[in-house]
Amino acid sequence: MNITNIIKLVNFILDKEWSGNTFTPDQFNTVISFVNEEVFSEEYTKLIGISIQAGELQSRELISLIDDSLLSPFKKLYNTTGAGSISIPSDYKKKLSAKIEDADGKIRYIEWVSEMEMQRRAAIISRKNPFEYPYGLIREPVMVWVPKTVVDIDFIYLRQPLTPFIDWAVSNTTGDTILLEPGWYITNDTGTINIRNAGNTIIYSDVTYYTSVPAGTGVLARSIDPEYDQMYYIMLVNRILEKAGVRINDQAVVQYSQMEQKKGE
């Protein structure tokens, strides 16, 4: 199942349950964007709540929780080189763990500390080798740590989700709305293309679809699938339906999905 299947299933159910009213692609994009962020925020809030109740979980425990949750697709590794600081990625949401490796191949995990503790440690003379006991924190938009020597760093963090999106075209011969699969390139028989800007609709005649084409001969569809594991897609469909005022259980959604698939055969 992908974003195209989701909008088709949602509209199939709405047509049955909502007296023929269905979502346009624009309306669907607005609703699924909201639902996507809503689900992520709920799961993130739940994760933080568990962490607080447990007395601020260690990085490995937090990562284990994420791996077993809806948030698992958003765990990301960022590998770079720095000397005491790096800019954090633009999609950053929460730090998980970081390890550094020096020129001799020694590896240590960074201990996350508070700003106050960072300043306290900087003010005292320690007999400890700073590389043996590295520590740091996030000062957005950077991450800082001690020691400030040049090291390779593997930073694992929870990132923000991409926003799901269905791209589409309208045929000027039939007037049909054509839903564009993620990864499709689109062109027409003459090779000329009108690219849709914000709010404008692409008009094609004799649209041809390709899963891949040589550079310069087509436009890549902007469709983006939800990043949650597909086992949660039925839940997303139900959340979208709820925004339209349609309340059915997950099993009913599964049954509708089977009906919609048979219709397309």
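(the above was protein one; protein two follows)
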Amino acid sequence: MDLNKSILWVFSHPNPSSIPSYVVSGILPADYLNIQKIIFLKNHDPKEILIRFNPKLIIINKAMHNKVANLANSAKELNIKVISVFDDWYFIKPETKGIQLRFIDNLKLANYSNNIVVKTQTAADIIYKHTGLKAEIISDCLRYVSKKSISNINYPFKISWFGLDTNHDTLEFGIREILKYDFKVNLKIITNKLEKIRIRLGSLNLKNISLEFIEWNKEMDKEVLKTDIVIIPYLNDHKRIVKSYNRIIDSISLGRFTIISDLSHLRKFKNYCFLGNIGAGLKWAKENNILAIEKVIKGVKFVQNNYDVPSISMEWKKIIEQTLKK
């Protein structure tokens, strides 16, 4: 089957490459499998697009507006198969009316779909609990790969944190954990909305922590490679338990010692990074430099063998073929 002519991979944001989750769960596997990519915006006519391209199946990445369900419904009417990808569908206590409406649209989209895909088993379990719908699990793939891992962890610590502004609260949480240990730290913060995070962290007594703010960009891995450690703190809440592993696997793949909060769904990475209090992780690395480097070396091999673009793309190819047969 010619996937390029038979399949459309749909993104509902005007600049898909600016959305990290779109890159690692859509753009990279679509490019590897030579699948056509299209952008579907609110003002587009769903039937016109489907008739013009005449696909056998469409893959809809995370819906960014409420017209995406209309596209799936039109596909169903035209006997076109639909696979929908869901990120951040956590059901519990949506904070705003906009998110609440998005969750309602998610349910419509899921019901119009022949298959739904999520990034983790935890996310699949939560969707099944609330809807009775069974989801396939395909992880995000690696975006960044480094051929050179660290060979030593220096002190004062050279640390990086990267993420979009929706994760700023977790960064503050992680910094507060570091402050309890009074370490000397040079911390690169790579994110969007820099003024927002400057204001958020401005009230903290940072003691021996110096901050460098860097605007999020596609080549942010070059900044991460200037550090020895990546921290990925998580709050133990309903939003974080459905998150993908993309920041974790990219950090490990870049050959940095990675410290992440100890949440149950992240324990599959315990042999390749430190799970727990961020400050405690720094203390452990300082006292166990050789063991920390061993974790880095094992981690690079693990993620690059299991989350590389070809491996994840083959999982997508399998799901596509199964869905076409339904």
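Reviewer note on protein two: The mean pLDDT is 93.
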